[in-house]
């Protein structure tokens, strides 16, 4: 758990200095310095070190008797400005609570999925109005009025500001936050998940607290700030309102995309390291820790612990009567567990190798089980999976792991992934992703000989891996939160909007939209005059499409084919060349068609 906490802490630190958080830094800086009503003095005198930016008292003048009366030292020292801590505390509380329980609460109440974003934007606007108009701030502080400490209840608006920033801050992260979000979406809140969430939140809080304290320091030490307190409060409030409007209309997204992702290298080394992968993929089950003994694609067989059970399976097919398969019933056989999804091009490329192995080694004792762990919601539908499996020629038993329970049992996080289990039920080898098929086949043959030293094995199948270029365009999701390589008009979440292609030519691995589109979390929906451009490098381009209509495919300015789309999400081939090449792909889609993800071969 200590390692998990360290991964979360480092992940949070990286996130807090990444480009995604830059738009809120001015707000945090000014929030740390804009004091509340901790003191009513407009001229505290030299050497007093008043930390707040004081609020004018409306011109009231103290009597000479009051000015000359002796005043205790404690009374003359104004309370310490704790606004930086209140802002950051609100952010940590908001992030931790809503990331873990937000999906559950929203689903139970039947609220829109983007309600938390709107709440965060609303709080930001209210705090901005409170800095500009003192009566609004007094209203915001009323919920904290029952707290007995005089100064604490003056920081109520700062804490509320932190709550709002936490809601807007949630999307900024990588694999660590992905693991937290998935756990929250499933309602599987374990002690490890809580530790990971809190450590990540604390990691993000440290740089922000430093920035907020810097704002307080400036307010304390720079005389010009104290003399112009009222004007600075108005500037800070206006900046918060402008930020809220920028976030609402995705103006800040364009700014963030224009900045280099200077933390990606460090983030990958930490959050996607071997240690992090093992920790993050096994958060939900303590029974499979022995899998950490092995590494991806090892050069020799190892003992990785007893094979975890196939649990939480929604249903089976390709078995007699669609009955489930118990791993214990396969003792004496060598079993290959293949994690896959039917619309994943990487998984599809692996299927011919599995077919070869089943034909060659089934009589020698090899058994293959496909665990279909969905990446998209449409991949949970049984009829879609059966149809996809039939098209690919998948004949071995398939388990529908719709709740990702077995996925978690095996600490998996890749499509495809293969686990080899020996005749005694022990995991001996696993391979994440494509490639190294010759090595995997070698391990299969060795396990079959261990199970039966007298077995007669055929020659290796010898199927070579497809020619995969190092610079092939990666899989690209059409999702407003997961898309990469997008350029052009900033995306509008969940609402129809008009987009325009950029005037400049699209670089390799970049895509853009034109016409009317609705950008959702799982797919983009085409509206009137919808077009999509993508400059890619590969032998072929494929796109998962759903709905009813036609797609006109244009490659380097020439119409090459028309794709007929009808029914549930299905992978469609758009281009097909003998050798890898760089080309500009343009698609013209009929209104109502849904586009999910590009894959390239």
What report would you give on this structure?
The structure is a single chain. With 601 residues, the protein is α+β, with helices and mostly antiparallel strands. The protein has 19 helices and 13 strands. It has helices at 2-16, 25-33, 64-68, 73-76, 83-109, 115-132, 134-141, 156-169, 175-186, 191-221, 223-227, 229-248, 251-258, 264-271, 274-281, 345-361, 382-392, 405-409, 437-451, and strands at residues 316-317, 334-340, 366-372, 398-400, 417-421, 427-432, 476-477, 496-499, 510-519, 524-526, 531-555, 558-589, 594-600. The strands form two sheets. Strands 7, 8, 9, 10, 11, 12 and 13 form a seven-stranded antiparallel beta sheet that branches. Strand 5 and strand 6 (427-432) form a beta hairpin.
């Amino acid at each position: 758990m200590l390692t998990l906490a360290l991964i979360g802490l480092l992940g949070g630190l990286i996130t807090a200095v990444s480009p995604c958080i830059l738009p809120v830094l001015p707000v945090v800086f000014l929030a740390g310095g804009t004091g509340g009503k901790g003191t009513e003095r407009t001229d505290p005198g030299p050497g007093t070190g008043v930390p707040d930016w004081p609020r004018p008292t409306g011109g009231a003048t103290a009597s000479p008797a009051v000015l000359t009366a002796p005043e205790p030292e404690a009374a003359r020292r104004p309370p310490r400005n704790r606004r930086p801590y209140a802002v950051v505390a609100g952010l940590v509380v908001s992030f931790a609570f809503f990331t873990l329980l937000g999906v559950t609460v929203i689903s139970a109440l039947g609220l829109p999925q983007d309600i938390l974003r709107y709440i965060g934007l609303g709080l930001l606007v209210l705090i901005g109005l409170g800095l500009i108009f003192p009566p609004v701030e007094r209203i915001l502080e009323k919920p904290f009025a029952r707290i007995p400490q005089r100064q604490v209840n003056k920081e109520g608006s700062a804490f509320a500001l932190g709550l709002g920033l936490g809601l807007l801050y949630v999307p900024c992260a990588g694999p660590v936050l992905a693991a937290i979000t998935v756990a929250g979406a499933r309602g599987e809140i374990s002690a490890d998940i809580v530790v990971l969430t809190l450590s990540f939140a604390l990691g993000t809080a440290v740089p922000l607290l430093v920035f907020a304290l810097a704002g307080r320091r400036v307010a304390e030490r720079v005389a010009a700030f104290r003399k112009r307190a009222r004007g600075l409060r108005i500037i800070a409030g206006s900046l918060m309102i402008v930020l809220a409007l920028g976030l609402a209309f995705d103006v800040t997204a364009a700014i963030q995309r224009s900045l280099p992702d200077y933390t990606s290298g460090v983030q990958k080394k930490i959050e996607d390291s071997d240690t992090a992968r093992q920790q993050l993929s096994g958060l939900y089950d303590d029974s499979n820790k022995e899998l950490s003994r092995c590494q991806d694609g090892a050069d020799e067989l190892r003992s990785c612990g007893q094979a975890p059970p196939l649990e939480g399976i929604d249903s089976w097919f390709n078995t007699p009567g669609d009955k489930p398969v118990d791993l214990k019933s396969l003792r004496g056989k060598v079993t290959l567990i293949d994690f896959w999804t039917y619309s994943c091009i990487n998984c599809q490329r692996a299927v011919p190798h599995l077919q070869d192995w089943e034909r060659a080694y089934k009589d020698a004792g090899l058994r293959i089980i496909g665990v279909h762990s969905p990446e998209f919601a449409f991949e949970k539908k049984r009829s879609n999976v059966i149809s996809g499996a039939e098209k690919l020629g998948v004949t071995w038993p398939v388990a529908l792991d719709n709740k990702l329970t077995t996925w978690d049992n095996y600490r998996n996080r890749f499509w495809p992934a293969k686990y080899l289990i020996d005749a005694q039920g022990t995991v001996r080898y696993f391979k994440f992703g494509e490639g190294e098929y010759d090595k995997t086949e070698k391990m299969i043959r060795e396990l079959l000989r261990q199970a039966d030293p007298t077995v007669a094995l055929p020659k290796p199948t010898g199927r070579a891996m497809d020619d995969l270029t190092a610079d092939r365009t990666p899989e690209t999701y059409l999702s407003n939160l997961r898309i990469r390589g997008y350029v052009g008009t900033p995306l509008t979440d969940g609402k129809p909007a008009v987009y325009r292609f950029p005037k400049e030519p699209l670089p390799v691995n970049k895509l853009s939209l034109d016409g009317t589109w609705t950008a959702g979390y799982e797919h983009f929906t085409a509206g009137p005059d919808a077009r999509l451009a993508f400059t890619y490098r590969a032998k072929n381009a494929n796109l998962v499409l759903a709905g009813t209509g036609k797609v006109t495919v244009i490659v380097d300015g020439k119409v090459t084919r028309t794709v007929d789309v009808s029914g549930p999400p299905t992978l469609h081939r758009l281009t097909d060349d003998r050798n890898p090449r760089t080309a500009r792909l343009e698609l013209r889609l009929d209104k109502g068609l849904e586009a999910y993800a590009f894959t390239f071969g």
